[in-house]
Every structure is written in structure tokens, then in C-alpha cells.
Automatic annotation (TrEMBL):
This is Fec operon regulator FecR. Residues 262-329 form the Protein FecR C-terminal domain. The chain crosses the membrane at residues 90-109. It comes from the Bacteria. Keywords: Membrane, Transmembrane, Transmembrane helix. One of its GO terms (molecular function) is sigma factor antagonist activity. It comes from Saccharicrinis fermentans DSM 9555 = JCM 21142. The keyword Transmembrane helix applies.
Length: 330
């Protein structure tokens, strides 16, 4: 019955009762002049709203109370303006509940569903920016430059799921009843409680590197290849469609970026330029294609971009022009 009522008078504009019709039905209900069919409709609505909308749409109790008070205040003001008198307090509360769903011009109903839709949070970082995010379970995510993290404001009772585009370091609070799942481009990473990094920028390799604990990494393809990792191990995917490789690595090489420590180990010059673009918020164009595939091993700690470019110039032998936000290498 409740589902049927929601389908008739819910959030679909084409099926929603017109404001005038509903106000008429409410007036008849209040004056006790409503027929049996109308009374059943109103009774069903009150039961449905209390058991469905309030429970599902207002998971956050404090925000629920704040919205209720605001709507209640608006309804009381409206009643005074219309000089309605001798309406019992419970009728006022009924009107307040109805205003949430229908309102004037259905505005409050849309606000209610907008609140529900904002239960997902998106955090973006620009080039040259990093951000630290604390999730509802106290897990901590350090988001590298040029990345995006999407997560639920409150995790479910069965799992904790986030979506990552770019690069991040995770310190996951242990919860054996709710696995922590990271969806990122071509791979899915599942943990219970550990620390690790995920690299999944568009058009680049994917890798998951474990600092502490144990991690399961699964390919998002028809074969669903899975690799189990522990501290000091890495799952590496060079291209989409390839099989993942399991490697033994120094995890510090893949997590040092959190402390402005750039470590390049046999990394192509082309990929180093991408890292510099993200970390320093600049655009770098290289027209010298002969040097793009050269592999370089070096590291920089809290150094200026101009200092890094000069050092790379010495190793690779190129010319360049540099201004505030653009570097041309030739």
C-alpha cells in the first residue's frame, strides 16, 4: 500500500497531486468532511511519510531536526497569515509534514530529494594541490594533485565503498564486518584495514602498492583476475587488457609524494613531465620527441620546479623556455 501511495503522490512531477487538489483534500480532512476513500488516502500518506521518507531521507538526525524546525516555522507563519484559528497542534504538525512533500509549488519536496542526492560527496584536487580527507569511519585519504574522490557521507552497514580517479594514499580503519572497497578505472581494491597507495590516472598505468597489511586487487574485466598483496608488494597494470603483474617493491617510492618527495626509478622522461605538471600546476610541452622515452633515476625533495628542470636538462640534454605556468622543451 505504501509503495503504491508513493508511486501516486511521490517525487514524479507528472504523477504528483496538484497543490490545489491536495490542499482541498487536507481542508476536508481537517474539517472532518472527507469521505471514506479520501480519509484512507490521507491516513496512508501519514503512515508512509513517517515510516519511509523520514527514515530514509534523513539519516543524519541533526540535519533532520534542523529541516523539521525550519519547515514547522514556515507552516506556522503561513497559518497565521491566513488567520486560521482553533486548529489543534497535531493538525499543525500534519501540515508541516505535508509541506515537506508538497510545499508550495512542490519546492520542499525537491529540497528533500536534493538532500538525499547530496549524500554522495565528491572531492577534487587541482594541479599543484593535495588534500587530506577523513571519512565517516575515521579512515584517512591523502588525495594527490589532479585527482577525484567520491564517497558516501555515511557508509552502509555492509561495506565501505569509494571511487578514485587519480592517485591517493589510504589509511583504512580496520572493520572486519565492512570491507573497504576502492573502485578505480581498471581495478578494484578490497581491504579490511591497512595502508596503501592507488595510482589510477587516465591514460596511465594502474598500480596498487601496499605499505602495511593485506590487500586484494581485482581487474574490472570479464576474467576478474585477482592478486593478493602484503606489505612491500605491488599490483601493476601497464595497459588495459593486460594481465596484472605482482611485484616486490620499496613502497616508499610510491608514497613519498605525500611529503613533497619525488622519487623517479627508471621512469620515462615523458612520465616525469606528467608528474611535474600535476605537482607544480604547470603545463609542459616537449617537442623533442627523441628524449621522451629516455629512462631516468633521480629524486627531489621539496625542490623548486626551476631547479628540477635545470637538473633534468643536465641529464637529458635539452633546451627550454619557462614562464610562470608554461614550460616549452625543445
Amino acid at each position: 500500500m505504501q509503495d503504491a501511495f508513493y508511486g501516486t503522490y511521490g517525487c514524479n512531477d507528472s504523477n504528483t497531486m496538484k497543490n490545489r487538489q491536495f490542499k482541498r483534500l487536507l481542508d476536508l480532512y481537517i474539517s472532518n468532511e472527507i469521505d471514506a476513500k479520501g480519509k484512507k488516502t490521507m491516513d496512508d500518506f501519514f503512515v508512509f511519510f513517517q515510516t519511509k521518507n523520514e527514515r530514509d531521507a534523513f539519516a543524519n538526525v541533526q540535519e533532520k531536526e534542523s529541516i523539521r524546525k525550519e519547515i514547522f516555522s514556515n507552516v506556522v507563519t503561513s497559518i497565521k497569515h491566513q488567520k486560521r484559528i482553533r486548529i489543534l497542534s497535531w493538525f499543525t504538525r500534519i501540515a508541516a509534514s505535508i509541506m515537506i512533500v508538497f510545499g508550495i509549488g512542490y519546492g520542499l519536496l525537491r529540497s528533500l530529494h536534493n538532500y538525499s542526492s547530496t549524500s554522495m560527496v565528491t572531492v577534487n584536487t587541482r594541479y599543484g594541490e593535495r588534500r587530506t580527507v577523513v571519512l565517516s569511519d575515521s579512515s584517512v585519504v591523502v588525495l594527490n594533485a589532479g585527482s577525484k574522490l567520491m564517497y558516501a557521507r555515511e557508509f552502509s552497514t555492509t561495506h565501505r565503498k569509494v571511487t578514485l580517479e587519480g592517485e591517493a594514499f589510504f589509511e583504512v580503519t580496520r572493520d572486519s564486518q565492512r570491507p573497504f572497497i576502492i573502485q578505480s578505472r581498471d581495478i578494484t581494491t578490497t581491504v579490511l584495514g591497512t595502508s596503501f597507495s592507488v595510482h589510477a590516472y587516465p591514460d596511465e598505468y594502474c598500480c596498487v602498492t601496499v605499505k602495511t597489511g593485506h590487500v586484494k586487487v581485482t581487474l574490472n574485466d570479464v576474467n576478474h583476475q585477482s592478486i593478493y598483496l602484503q606489505s612491500g608488494e605491488q599490483a601493476y597494470l601497464k595497459n588495459k587488457g593486460d594481465e596484472m603483474e605482482k611485484r616486490v617493491v620499496n613502497s616508499q617510492l610510491f608514497t613519498a609524494w605525500q611529503n613533497n618527495h619525488l622519487i623517479f626509478n627508471q621512469l620515462r622522461f615523458e612520465d616525469i613531465l606528467k608528474v611535474l605538471e600535476r605537482n607544480y600546476g604547470v603545463k609542459i610541452h616537449c617537442s623533442n620527441h627523441a628524449i621522451m622515452q629516455k629512462q631516468i633515476t633521480t629524486q627531489y625533495f621539496n625542490e623548486s620546479l626551476s631547479s628540477i628542470i635545470k637538473d633534468l636538462q643536465f641529464m637529458v640534454n635539452f633546451k627550454y623556455e619557462m614562464n610562470e605556468d608554461y614550460i616549452s622543451i625543445y
